Amino acid sequence: MKTYFQFLLGLLLLSQASWAQTKPSASTTATKPLSQRMADSFIAEYPDSLGIAKSKAARWGYEQGVMLTALERVGQRSGDPRYFNYVRKIVDYSVQPDGTITGYKPDDYSVDNIPTGRSVLTLAQRFPQETKYRKAADLLRQQLTTHPRTKEGGFWHKKRYPNQMWLDGLYMLEPFYAEYSKIYNQPANFDDIAKQFALIEKYCVDPKTGLLYHAYDESKEQKWANKQTGQSPNFWSRGMGWYAMALVDVLDYFPKSHPQRQQLVKDLQRLAPVLVKFQDPKTGGWYQVTDQGTRAGNYIETSSSSMFVYAIAKGVRLGYLDKKYAAVAQKGYQGLVKNFIETAPSGALAMNGTVSVGGLGGDPYRDGSYEYYLSEPIKKNDFKGVGPFIMASLEMEMAKKGL
Questions:
Q1: Catalytic site residues?
Q2: CB of 83 closer than 8 Å to CB of 72
Q3: 34, 158, 307, 328: most buried by Cβ count inside 10 Å?
Q4: What's the superkingdom here (predicted)?
Q5: SS3 letters for 77-95?
Q6: Contact 238, 303 (CB under 8 A)
Q7: How far apart are CA 270 and CA 272, in angstroms?
Q8: What is the DSSP letter of 325?
Q9: Which residues of 177-197 are buried (b: 16+ CB within 10 A; e: fewer)?
């Protein structure tokens, strides 16, 4: 027995020595592209779980979903299996052998439960023999079949937010819905997906500025809702960031022959010059309340700025946007790196300046006022900022290589 434990100890010491020899130094890390450096820093901070609080187990939600999507794309670009293995490990915390999802309550009808489904779809394709992934994807897809809708067919943001469509919801639902529909050959769904964007364009776009209000209430009953239009009072940049990312990601799966595909491209082309108009000339970023950059208390917000950079850069790369917008993305990205990315002596990166949350209604009640949006705390290394920054970094790295 003693000999056996000595043998195990020897293996442990050998593995530790091997790890120490291969662990990258700060100087080696600095040679990696920013997308990988930020991904590595995030994984080092959350090595075994992806809970919002480090002491808690991984939870099922949209914050998790956007981070896993970003890490998956780093793996695709770099070819390094560590990122994909990490994604699988985190998903496996929640997806059980029978396809049920720990912490997921379908009857909540929350759009926030859907984004991690994109990683589930990836796993279902890579490991078709492990049926739990397909079953979990089907479970999420089933929510959309019975999810409550507005009278015109728009998905409610959540069951507890009746009659309301929020910009956020387009990113939460539509990319998963579109990818699932493409993989499992459900072409009729693309009409429904296009309808969601059409309703947002119809009811949330401000005709004067071209910006989009955070949400609208079809019933016009909410205290935050304009009694004539149902629109919320202000333009929240991250809401528009989610919407912009939804547009460019859904187009990855939309059939080229679909009659509404070109309308989605036009929606992106309509939005791009509006974003340029409200880009801060000094920092290249976008303000928390988009159109009130000179008002006291407003600040450059990094999750929305990363989302806009990502959407614009990807739009240019795929030919949806004129090449002149590449400079807009570059300016925004340089501002993020210069002003909001910290580098520790170890080479680890951190991101500042991300608002923790933004919503409407609820308890305590969020009235959508300027003062409300400025009252939410600003966080460091928030998933909703780090994930989009990684995706923006990947786009800028591809642009630099002329891809």
A1: 168
A2: yes
A3: 307
A4: Bacteria
A5: HHCCHHHHHHHHHHHHHHE
A6: yes
A7: 6
A8: G
A9: bbbbbbeeeeeebbebbbbbb
- State the pLDDT at residue 57: 61
In the numeric block, which tokens belong to residue 381? 């290394």
pLDDT band at 51 (very low <50, low <70, confident <90, very high): low
* CA 268 – CA 117 distance, rounded (Å): 24
User: From CA 214, how far away is CA 168, in angstroms rounded?
Assistant: 8
Which residue from 70, 78, 82 is spatially nearest to 392, judged by alpha carbons?
Answer: 70
SS3 content of the chain, % helix, strand, coil (to 5): 55, 10, 35
Greatest alpha-carbon span in the chain: 81
Q: How many CB atoms lie within 10 A of CB 103?
A: 12
- Give the residue carrying structure tokens 């923006």: 392
Q: What angle do CA 97, 145, 100 make, to 5 degrees?
A: 10
Contact between 208 and 184 under an 8 Å Cβ cutoff? The reply is no
pLDDT tens, position by position, 355-369:
999 999 999 999 999
User: What is the distance between the alpha carbons of residues 379 and 358, in angstroms, rounded to a whole number?
Assistant: 13
State the chain's mean pLDDT as an integer.
92
Amino acid making up residue 7: F
pTM metric for this prediction? 0.92
Q: How far apart are CA 308 and CA 335, in angstroms?
A: 13
Yes or no: say if 86 and 43 are a contact pair by the CB < 8 Å rule.
Answer: yes
Structure tokens at 400: 């630099």
DSSP secondary structure letters along 339-395: HHEEE-TTS-EEE--EES----BTTTTB---HHHHHHSPEESS-HHHHHHHHHHHHH
